[in-house]
């Protein structure tokens, strides 16, 4: 596993070793000791599967750290600094495939768009789920996220998220 810092403090882009074999590939997606070195003690593993490209979720900042990685397909991930720091509102985007992962600390917003049909996305978290979260409009012009040029599908709940400016108030 190779870890790279990003422009958002604490967000790490992780390259996982994908080992091809005659049947496909193998990867070590989770290693407790390696994640503990990053400061994460996993308590829950969630898996989401999406049948179509263009499914968008987010922007959500939850009260837990997240380790995100696709096991099939590809995703475009947009990460937004939502903690009360000078870099508030900074966006960084990534394209993630099966050999990639992101570590996103609590309070940082994350969102994604499936780039391929039959995408499966893993979320490891260090706190059990709760409804508490901060959310921001996926299409807020201030964030200027360059979403993929696909027909996008998102939930009514995400479409109703407030603008970034509302979080400053």
Automatic annotation (TrEMBL):
InterPro entries named in the record: RmlC-like (IPR000888), RmlC-like_jellyroll (IPR014710), RmlC_Cupin_sf (IPR011051)
Gene3D superfamilies per record: Jelly Rolls
A Pfam cross-reference name: dTDP_sugar_isom
Family: Belongs to the dTDP-4-dehydrorhamnose 3,5-epimerase family.
Record-linked PANTHER family: DTDP-6-DEOXY-D-GLUCOSE-3,5 EPIMERASE, THYMIDINE DIPHOSPHO-4-KETO-RHAMNOSE 3,5-EPIMERASE
Name this polypeptide is given: dTDP-4-dehydrorhamnose 3,5-epimerase
Organism: Kribbella karoonensis
